[in-house]
Specification:
This protein has about 150 residues and is mainly α. The chain is globular and about 70 Å long.
């Protein structure tokens, strides 16, 4: 009788086929995101794309993958390769999404994060104009006379 109960619990513990297909789709989407981030980083390093073409490309990727694209780019700051990290800094600066600011600020304040990564996050913040110094500086209003 105990064997029969064990078999019943094993049978009910198996996931539904629909659930399996959702997991597979999620894994494929995750894999596509990783591949695209790696591809766009390589494009920055190896190609002669203009800034506007690159900006258009990352905006498209941002629309396609949503905030997961931003998070994956931020995670890419942890790459060991200096050229790849520089490319990620440039991409994040071009993306200029202020929703990323808290996460980047958090990275800069973590002493257990490697110094190169903290500096990279600080560079992105500076490129976006999201540093304390920039925020504290009063903005000049330019007035032009039309005569």
């Amino acid at each position: 009788m105990e064997k029969r109960d064990a078999r019943l619990s094993l049978h009910t513990a198996t996931p539904e086929p629909v659930e399996d297909s959702r997991i597979i789709v999620a894994l494929e989407s995750h894999r596509a995101l990783h591949h695209r981030v790696h591809e766009i980083v390589r494009l920055v390093i190896d190609s002669d794309m203009t800034t506007s073409e690159l900006q258009q490309s990352i905006r498209h990727d941002s629309q396609q993958f949503g905030s997961r694209f931003h998070h994956q780019l931020i995670r890419s700051l942890y790459l060991d390769d200096e050229d790849e990290r520089k490319a990620v800094i440039w991409l994040l600066t071009l993306l200029d999404d202020w929703d990323m600011v808290p996460q980047l600020q958090h990275i800069t304040q973590q002493r257990n994060v490697p110094r190169a990564v903290r500096l990279a996050a600080a560079l992105v913040l500076a490129g976006m104009g999201a540093t304390r110094e920039v925020e504290a500086t009063p903005q000049r209003v330019r007035v032009y006379a039309i005569g």
